[in-house]
From TrEMBL:
Source organism per UniProt: Enterococcus avium
Record-given protein name: GntR family transcriptional regulator
Molecular functions (GO terms): DNA binding; DNA-binding transcription factor activity
Keyword DNA-binding: yes
Gene Ontology biological process terms in this record: negative regulation of DNA-templated transcription
Domain of life: Bacteria
UniProt keyword list: DNA-binding, Transcription, Transcription regulation
Pfam family, one: GntR
Amino acid sequence: MVRKIIDEHKPLYLQIKEAILQQIKEKELVAGDKLLSEAQFQKSFQVSRITVRKAIDELVEEGYLTRLQGKGTFVKHQNQGIQKSLSLTQVCLDQGKKLTSDVLAVKETIVPADFIPLFNSDKSIMIERLRKVDGVAIMLEKNYLPTEFTFLYECDLSGSLYEVLAEHEITPKVKGMNQVGIKQLTDQQAVLFNVQSGLSVIQHKGTVYDTKNQLVLASEELVRVDLPDLFKYYL
């Protein structure tokens, strides 16, 4: 159905922008959804492509949409209010535990499929770490950060990643995606944890944003749940 511009006194691009925002607010469009092409919007609203582009450009700048070169424009995660985003370092301090980290890899890699719509590129800086509480491996994590965070290659990442980011004026404040499931460890993962292959662990996928709704990192974590007396971690 052709959408008609109904307010002759309001700029056309603004009416298109508001129409897209309304779909996001009413959850007709959700995080990860791909928008129509500019040509399709042009035909639907019967306006010029320049008008469509201006509306989309503003939504990208405001953090509602993200463009992925060669793939299209996607809806970004919209955070529902500020939540406390505790680092594992802080959780361990609160419980009187000693946290250490073995940094297994720091490299540029392809963004996992679940996170691609949230990044401005299909590449990211991946930091893989094995986290240990009082010397016992409890978490295997992979953090994916924007490629412009090149300072990470020169930093000591065995401590708090949030503190490293804060030193470069990047402050994680808001949790976004929070997906939890069950997974069995592979042989390779079991060796890292020093447990038997096939042990069931929590698989957690999450995202963290700053107060301007800019993505700071996306993460994949495998967390042991068979050590309740050693450590309690709330996802």
